[in-house]
Amino acid sequence: MRNSLLILAILLLCFSISALSAENDDHADYVKHVEQGFLYLFQGDNQATIKAFESALAIDPNRYEILHYLGMSYASDSSWNKAVEVYNRSLALKPDNIEVLYSLAIVYFKLNQWEDAVEPLKSVISLSPQHARAHEVLGKVYVKLRQYTDAVDVLNKAIVLKPNAAGNYYELGNAHLNLKSYPEAIDFFNKAIQFGPPDFADPHFGLGTAYQRIGNRDKSREEMQIYQRLQKEAADYERFTRLTRVDPNNLDGWTGLAGVMMRQKKYKRVIPVFQKCIEIGNAQNAPVGAIASYYHGLSQAFINIRYPKLALEPAQKAIQLLPTQDRFYNTLGSVYAMLGDVQNAISVFRKAVELNEEQPYYHLNLSKLYKSIGNHKLGDQHYQAYEHFLSQQKKTQK
Amino acid sequence: MNIRRFSAVILIFFYFLVVSIDVSAEERENMMILIQAGTFTMGSTSRAEDEKPAHKVFIDAFYISKYEVTNAEYYEFWINLQKKNSKNVTEENQHTPENFSHLPHIGTHIGNWPERATKLPDHPVVGVSWYDAKAYAEWKGMRLPTEAEWEKAARGYSDRIWPWGNSMLPHANTSEQNDGYDNMIAPVGSYPKGKSFFGAMDMAGNVWEWTADWYSDVYYTHSPNRNPKGPDVGSWRILRGGSWIDKLARCSTTFRFYLYPSLKTSFVGFRVAKSVDKSDKD
Lengths: 398, 282
Known about the structure:
- The structure holds two protein chains of two kinds.
- Chain A is mostly helical.
- Chain A has helices spanning about 1-45, 45-60, 65-75, 80-95, 100-110, 115-125, 130-145, 150-160, 165-180, 180-195, 200-215, 215-245, 250-265, 265-285, 290-305, 310-320, 325-340, 340-355, 360-370, 375-395.
- Chain A is extended.
- By secondary structure, chain B is an alpha+beta fold.
- Chain B is built from nine helices and nine strands.
- Chain B has helices at about 5-20, 25-30, 70-85, 90-95, 115-120, 130-140, 145-155, 220, 280, and strands spanning about 30-35, 40, 55-60, 60-65, 210-215, 235-240, 255-260, 270, 275.
- Chain B has a four-stranded mixed beta sheet with strand order 7-6-5-8.
- Chain B is globular.
- The interface of A and B includes residues 32, 34, 42, 99 and 128 of A.
């Protein structure tokens, strides 16, 4: 009897230890998958992230947080329906989770299921009244659903929370346009332009439409022309980007891309593009003039993002390659001026004037510099030259 | 059999192992840096969207710990809890850091809890949730720093991109350096050149640090300009400083990261803060 009890006790102990060990192993595996999931998430590897988080959830399916991260990975992978399924599983475990509700609404928005997006967004706003993104998306959803009055109401709150968001002003402009409140529409489209990137075309179309409706044909035409130009630039940007992706050594593609990006004022992002132009241009023995213009463009990009130190060398290089281009001297002069080197700036601007006396802005630059060092006589002379050549230029343009 | 009960049995063993660890832990305990009241620039105009706009923020004087909380320091809190809660053990009241010894490549050096408190006493504690961090801070009579306090302590008054300045230098434990701490956590204070203007260590890299605030991407557009404490509600808590698995760019003084507060990972730890009492000022 005593032996039987002892055996039973040993068996029970073994069973308990093995159960504990299995539990520990499962948890260890769960932790391993979660850690790997985060590593892959940070590396932007959606497929590996999904696999890791799915494995973690196979061990512990009740982790609402991991379900959220998994859903976000599916969404990043454009697997929208899978994301909806996973978000709903997460919400079943924690129904008031603000960010999961918001993520779910975003997926419905991507799927053009506007009606489905409304309720989760309303829940987010009710749980977190300061949630700017939820106001923003709900406003867009209402515009899509043609509930313009609701859209105006929600978007007005969105711009209080996020005062510089051009997209919200644009949507407000749209809503007012559809409500036939044209002065408000014009005001909001203008704000969208003010706060948006220089290549934001849509508000110009909105403005063109609004001006047309109130009978201001000139302004309408003007805005539509800007819209068309920006649209063309956007199409060119797409075309050149695609071209350089397909054929990374296509110098025409990189040159075209740099040109479009300069017109779009994407100065920071154009820097590596000019550097690529120089690299490929040199490798392919491109004409000296072309290489010089890439250096010049690079220098201008640095000037525009206010890095004169980095603009100096490419400006000098451009002149070294092509010493007859007046505009290169003007750029180098601007660099010296930004660096506070007035004497060198004056000498370089003078060289620009020597090569092209009729460019008014070279005189204006010289005028400002001379005045800054107290030489008012030369400052005035160049200012007069500036006015003279400017009026001539205007006459020619007419 | 409850895993918590089972682990309680072996606590006593580890208690005797760890009570004798590193005396420098005691010294470190008192290393709180006083950050004087004043205004600094929070956020940035040119980096991530949720860092915008750069704005002036006034913060009352506060203390912040010079180092991230170490394994040894956390162990003291943890063992105390085990003794206190030995008859009423729940997952919530244990605040046990996560185990990592089974992780291929990334976790082998971190090891399991509580063994790692003995093996790596000067390493920052990781595998702790926001709730664990908060409980520790409260046990010490302190609290987690607010996001604004953290940024001020890291950034100083001259808008530094990294705690040491604006140059991309290898003064932090990140994933990019080949400095003997590749793919691993470093003991706190291993990068003295990376100290902040106020002298706080490891505010870039090593481990992400929990802060008290909820995350909102647009909080800076409407936050109060005096002692902001984050939104009232949220899903995620803010982490700052970057970690051993991140590139230096993510370890800037302004970069904002967020996680669910319940998560316990190998790249997240914390440091503590304390308000300055009136008596302290006098």
